[in-house]
User: Which sequence fits this backbone?
């Protein structure tokens, strides 16, 4: 059996390498070592590799069994869990703007963004307006503008190319990374690779490409579940003369797990154990994927047992991942048992461990015990952070213990710990009126925390559920005013909400706008709107036919009336003629009698 598994794995590797050589001949790939693998490559893993040779670079095919959580989630912003990870990363880290302190620079960025948004449907007009705006280009300006229009890749790319042509300015690595991240997010991978080739400095002789550049591409491929191209990009490190050590390989594993390709990451780790030996960190990456990204205690325990079987040493990160998994699953008993076991073997808890246990206690409505543990962690020199407080606030809000949640919030402010957007999201979920929502939005802004896309998505969904469409459109307009361009998730939530509220024409309008921006609609919404549109056309056709029939019936009745009048007229004319003839005949007979002629004489 072991030999059969080995053959299957080697055959899969051969297919991977052959297709890689054909498709990416410009990449210099290293070979896979001859391996003996205990577990064969899964069918999903093989499918990911076998599909990339035929799929388009611009629109890679997402396997149907992989669900994208951003459109399928409810009001939650953290995949169905109250637990917040300390190392949560924003998907747009590379496109993050700056806090502009210069008012002039802020106004210049606003001017550019307004031009890009107003002329989004006319690229020629957009280019002309940008040329005439008279704004001086700087690195800070470019980063801020790209951050604000990151969901409209054409507008961002138009501005990026225009900025590169301005005298006295040249893009740095950071601007290139921002633009490449935007293109990758919108699946414009060919264009992104063109920019990377430009960064190589063929003309200038100075290369701006860094390992981070390729890591951005790896992450974007992982985001669309194109595992094959993600691995090919990793092997492109050699072409750019970068190191391909264990750290780079672990970055690849992290990228795969970050976007829920955890099973692929685990199989890749086993297949490459001869080149990149198995160690605690590699296992922790996969374990964290099963624990915090997928949220499967069963798979997490399987990996845990595998680590123990192979003699891989557990560290505080391993325990933190498992505790977080049990905490999210609401298994307080397992959390406390594992916490005691960790302390028993002499592993000192870190902040992540404490946060997971505090969250489990608060979720189990043991609020006093959670506060006591927070005091204990402070006594041991581990200061609570915003994640610690969020681990308390979120469960309290879900349990409708609003006053206690506010008390924790006030205590956090006294410690000079600034609330994050996730803190406010916890309070937004328990609000029940539009007035409360807008009041909290105003308070949030005054405290220096600006709403993000996830905030608007949550509130738009909430107002659609409340059937307050005026507030829905108010928030939608506010997004653009605040420099946030709606992304795919925003459109899907808005269209779905309008559809369920019977605003079918408005839903179709935003559906068309979404497709014009080359954002892929959700299949279910696409099907619903197409069905409605076809039914509408049929109904309009039937209405037109009915009107035509009514017109024909009206014309028929009119013709009948005219014919009747015509017949009456036709009958009337002979009658009058007969009367005149009778009179004439009578007069003639009278004359004949008077003159003595017989009427019947010839």
Assistant:
């Amino acid at each position: 059996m072991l030999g059969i598994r080995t053959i299957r794995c080697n055959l899969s590797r051969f297919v991977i390498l052959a297709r890689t050589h054909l498709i990416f001949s410009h990449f210099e790939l290293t070979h896979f070592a001859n391996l003996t693998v205990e577990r064969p490559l899964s069918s999903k893993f093989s499918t990911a590799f076998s599909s990339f040779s035929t799929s388009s670079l611009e629109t890679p095919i997402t396997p149907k069994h992989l669900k994208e959580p951003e459109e399928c989630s409810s009001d939650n912003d953290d995949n169905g869990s109250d637990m917040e990870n300390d190392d949560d990363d924003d998907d747009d880290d590379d496109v993050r703007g700056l806090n502009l302190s210069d008012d002039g620079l802020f106004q210049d960025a606003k001017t550019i963004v307004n031009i890009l948004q107003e002329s989004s449907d006319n690229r020629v007009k957009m280019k002309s307006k940008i040329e005439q705006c008279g704004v001086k280009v700087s690195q800070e300006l470019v980063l801020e503008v790209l951050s604000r229009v990151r969901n409209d890749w054409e507008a961002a790319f138009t501005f990026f190319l225009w900025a590169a042509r301005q005298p006295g300015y040249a893009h740095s690595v950071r601007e290139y990374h921002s633009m490449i991240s935007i293109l990758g997010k919108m699946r414009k991978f060919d264009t992104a690779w063109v920019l990377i080739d430009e960064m190589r400095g063929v003309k200038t002789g100075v290369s701006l490409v860094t390992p981070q550049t390729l890591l951005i591409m790896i992450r974007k491929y992982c985001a669309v579940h194109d595992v094959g191209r993600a691995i090919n990009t990793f092997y492109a490190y050699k072409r750019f003369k970068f190191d391909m050590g264990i750290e780079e390989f672990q970055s690849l594993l992290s990228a795969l797990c970050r976007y829920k390709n955890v099973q692929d990451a685990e199989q890749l780790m086993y297949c490459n154990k001869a080149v990149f030996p198995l160690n605690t960190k590699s296992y922790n990456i996969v374990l964290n994927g099963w624990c915090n990204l997928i949220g499967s205690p069963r798979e997490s325990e399987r990996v845990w047992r595998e680590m123990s079987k192979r003699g891989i040493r557990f560290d505080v990160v391993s325990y933190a991942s498992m505790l977080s998994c049990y905490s999210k699953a609401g298994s307080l008993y397992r959390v406390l048992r594992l916490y005691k076991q960790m302390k028993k073997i002499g592993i000192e808890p870190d902040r992540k461990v404490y946060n997971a246990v505090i969250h489990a206690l608060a979720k189990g409505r043991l609020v006093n015990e959670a506060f006591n543990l927070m005091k204990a962690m402070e006594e041991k020199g581990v200061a609570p952070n915003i994640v610690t407080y969020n681990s308390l606030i979120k469960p309290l809000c879900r349990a409708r213990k609003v006053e206690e949640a506010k008390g924790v919030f006030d205590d956090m402010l006294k410690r000079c710990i600034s609330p994050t957007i996730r803190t406010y999201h916890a309070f937004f979920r328990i609000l029940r009126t539009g007035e409360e929502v807008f009041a909290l939005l105003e308070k949030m802004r005054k405290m220096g925390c600006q709403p993000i896309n996830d905030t608007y998505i949550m509130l738009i969904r909430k107002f659609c559920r409340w059937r307050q469409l005026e507030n829905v459109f108010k928030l939608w307009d506010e997004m653009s005013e605040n420099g946030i361009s709606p992304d795919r998730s925003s459109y899907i939530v808005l269209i779905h909400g309008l559809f369920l509220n019977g605003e079918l024409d408005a839903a179709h309008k935003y559906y068309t706008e979404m497709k014009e921006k080359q954002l892929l609609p959700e299949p279910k919404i696409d099907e619903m709107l197409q069905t409605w549109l076809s039914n509408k056309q049929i109904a309009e056709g039937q209405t037109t036919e009915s009107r035509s029939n009514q017109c024909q019936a009206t014309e028929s009745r009119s013709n009948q009336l005219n014919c009747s009048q015509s017949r009456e007229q036709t009958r009337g004319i002979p009658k009058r003629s007969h009367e005149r003839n009778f009179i004439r005949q009578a007069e003639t007979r009278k004359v004949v009698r008077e003159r003595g002629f017989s009427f019947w004489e010839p």
